[in-house]
Write a structure and sequence with these properties.
heterodimer; A: Ribosomal Protein S5, domain 2; five-stranded mixed beta sheet; five-stranded antiparallel beta sheet; 4 helices; 10 strands; 28% strand; B: 236 residues; alpha+beta; OB fold (Dihydrolipoamide Acetyltransferase, E2P); 3 domains; 33% strand
Chain lengths: 249, 236
Amino acid sequence: MNDKPEKLIDKKGLRLDGRKADELRSVKLEVGVIPNADGSAYIEHGKNKILAAVYGPREVHPKHLALQDRTVMRCRYHMAPFSVQERKSPAPSRREIELSKVIRESLEPAVFMEYYPRTMVNVFVEVLQADGGTRCASITAAALALADSGIPMKDLVVACAAGKVEDTVVLDLMDTEDKLGAADVPVALMPNLNALTLLQMDGTLTHEEFEKAVNMAIEGCKQIYVMQKEALKKKYVNVSEGIKEEAEE
Amino acid sequence: MPIFLEKRQLVTPGDLIAEGEYVAGENTFVEKSKIYAARVGIVEYENKRVDVVALKAFYVPRPGDIVIGTITEVGFNGWTVDINSPYIALLRASDVLSRPFKPQKDDLPQVLDAGDLVVAKIVSYDRTHDPQLTVAEPGLGKITRGQIIKITPTKIPRVIGKKGSMISMIKQETGCNIILGLNGVVLITGKTLEDEQLAMRALVKIEQESHTSGLTDRVTQMLKEEKSNKEENKNE
């Protein structure tokens, strides 16, 4: 499994898992999976499996962290020890601390932070299985959990990555492509306001390639957004349909 | 100036609802003269006002609201009360005793202790100060018996129904007295435990199906069925 593949893209232009260059991995979303949390969501993005939970707004502990004009948002991104091939130490690593900050900063613009001063919102992201692109999948799930918790939001946030593998710009890189490829561009989007909340780049791209990658990632985001909305509505639509069936019987 | 959605349609945050000469109501916001939804909910509009009725939200205190809270801490001249909201409420000792509080004489835990439930009214609250409660009015004060059930605060209006149709029906059918805390906590006191449990089941049903139509009829039907079932069991 750890063997290095000879070619990342075959003659037909298909990738290791048989996807085309501009094709997403399969995405499955579910809302309201943790009853104890105020809001929660679960995402399966390819082989990524991630849980997100939101608690709050609630009173701030420790008290001195409270802000007089806005909510304090805190985020914890954590990878389970069993989420990767080699056991990962459960202690927060440098990378996890950075990703926590990145996820928080890409969610903050979508939340009405100034509505509830002197309160705190906690976002917990737990990666159960990782296969490249966890930060994007985490943002997508965390935004759903926030919306599910009933916090007023300007828009949902969707994230997706694009990158370069063997001179081709491709959408939604998986782990091997990310590690052996030339570049990775994660993008987070607020689809209705048409605004980006995250834009990073790892590796090297020419100007044109970069532009192509960003546009490709935005298209990917829009595809996931449709599923995100559906997942959020599904929780309530199920109940209405159940009643309709009852009435028909 | 169109409206893009029909009445009672389900929206998610960021959905465009209307454009132009409309007034943005609850759970909506305006950006470049377009009105968007800010919460998961159902679109309602009347005249020029557009609202989103949230399907899930938390309680934000408002002066004058009746709430049901739990005492969490006994302070040295009052109590802190959990009112199921982002903000913790304060209840002053002199208010409960209805006379000046004397620290040498009065023993606060004997009056109200941690874990006690109270029906209270919010006297004051704003962005800069935590809410303050009072119990110095008829009908307010410590709860001694009954059942407590928590529902999403935004669904309290649905429990009340049009001009109180839903709540008065439940009261009549179950013979229970029901106090609705606007913070989503409901107190049910009835003659027997069974009556109380029946009322609780009705409330759970309302919470789960609050966004569907014809709910009052379905709840009435459910209550009547359960009552007749019980009587059959008694006869057997």
